[in-house]
Known about the structure:
It contains 17 helices and two strands. With about 425 residues, it is mainly α. The protein has a single domain (about 30-420), classed as Up-down Bundle (Growth Hormone, Chain: A), CATH 1.20.1250.20. It is globular. The protein starts with 11 loop residues before the first strand and ends in an 8-residue tail after the last helix. Mean pLDDT is about 80; it is low at about 1-10, about 15-30 and about 415-420.
Amino acid sequence: MSSIRVTDANAATHPAGAPAVPAAETGAATGLPARLVLLLAAGAGLAVASLYYSQPMLGVLGPDIGASDRAVGLVPTLTQLGYALGILLLAPLGDRYDRRRIILAKAAVLSAALLASGAASGIGLLLATSLAIGLAATMAQDIVPAAATLAPESHRGKVVGTVMTGLLLGILLSRVLSGFVAEHFGWRIMFVIAAASIALIGAVAWRALPRFKPTTHLAYSALLGSLASLWRKHGALRRATLAQGLLSIGFSAFWSTLAVMLHGAPFHLGSAAAGAFGLAGAAGALAAPLAGRLADRKGPELVTRLGAALAAVSFAGMLFSPLLAPHARLWLIAASALGFDLGVQVSLVAHQTIVYGIEPGARSRLNAVLFVGMFVGMAAGAALGSLMLARWGWMAVTALSTATAIGALLVRAWPGARLAK
């Protein structure tokens, strides 16, 4: 079998039947085959997009199945909780078993869960499938450590940044696509399209994705127990997780309530308009490779502080929206979305660069800790955002997002941050 060059001691090899990659197709800037990087980026993006398709559709989905706004608000909450739970319980398996097999199994489950969501006739089944989608969508968190393992150390930040561009574009463009499809063809069709895209990625991955040798032989219980050991051992991991978790609260509070806010007065906009705001955030996702290169050159610590500061300033900008006319408010919200999405994404790439450099043999587990914190923050943000919007209005959501971003900046800028190892 032909092999792909990796710098880690545990090499990845092509599965039987996979064609060898010509040298001409290898990206000189990353040392990896260009089509493999594309597959990893697309797989991560389409998997994580499954978490967000529902958000712009909540305004039309609820009335169609006879569910209240409060009940429908549980859909993104359970999806994010399922993702956090899946990262905690399933993502560490990437250090113990072949990541390729794990990715293929999760792709099959995720495709089935998306189809079931499209067929749901009531809120009960939809909530159950939302939890299942969250669990299976963690295939994205098997793909990102796979990219870090395959990448040469000197280009790890750039490779991770490129794959994260796919992941982040999946998060942001999923809202644009689902809003458009829901308004013109119905929300059920969106789930069918999503299921088909995951099935296609699974088929391509089965053919092209390398096998990965395990880096540990710990039993499952010991594998999970080692997460706590890694948390206690590494201050850099704790700081990265806390800072990214705080940023995620504000990020999720904004995106999980935007469609409901725009659906009401004074805007009265549909799901397509709500999803279109994802275009502003998607522009920020394109900076992820730049953030990775900057982290390679200047160090990820600086990049985390820059990202958190940008998110805080952008969230704070939305506090001035009541002073503006409705159309001007929409432009301010779009500009703020561009800024804070860029800040959150830049911080995430830098935090991953920090975490992946701690213990190469524990990348799946380190990644699991980081993303559990991130998606616990996402779930908390969705729940808190819905509550604040219902009780105190949009300005309360904006104030929450601003406060959490400032908190993340303080975590990164605290005097001891540079010394945490």
